[in-house]
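Researcher: I need the complex structure. Ligand is 4-nitrophenyl phosphate. Inputs:
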Amino acid sequence: MTKILMVCLGNICRSPLAEGILKSKLTSDSFFVDSAGTGDYHIGKNPDSRSIAIARKHGLDISNLKGRQFNVSDFDKFDIIYVMDESNYRNVLLLARNEQDKAKVKFILNEIHPNQNYNVPDPYFGGNDGFENVYHMLDEACSVIATRLQN
Ligand code: 4NP
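Model: Output:
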């Protein structure tokens, strides 16, 4: 089984959306997709209502997901760890114990813009447009990920 973890800061806006989108594209039992935040502000919370709404608009239900914090054991549990931005990247790498852990961590937008290390912008403090924008970025990246993993 290939296990993929989506990581952002709060685990209520970007990474639960990325989790829901990738799950919808990887329907076989050979894949497991989860998400986590580097911060501890929203542990146990459902996704932000704006992320739930944008997912619902595109036919996905992420309303039952629960926030959790990234921890070092995730390096053992997951094969690929996709981060949304450079701050997530730094925070996850700070917990890496060795080169093998580090090699699992990738910028999700590098799937569509190789080696650019672009950020998925944090939509938390903005309006609904930000969520639509993030949805489309993640949908494009997850399509590439799903196609590659299934081939
Ligand atoms: P996320 O967005 O990292 O995409 O889940 C955020 C959610 C909450 C906060 C920051 C970003 N916060 O500061 O509470």
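Model: Summary of the prediction. The two ends are 14 Å apart (CA to CA).
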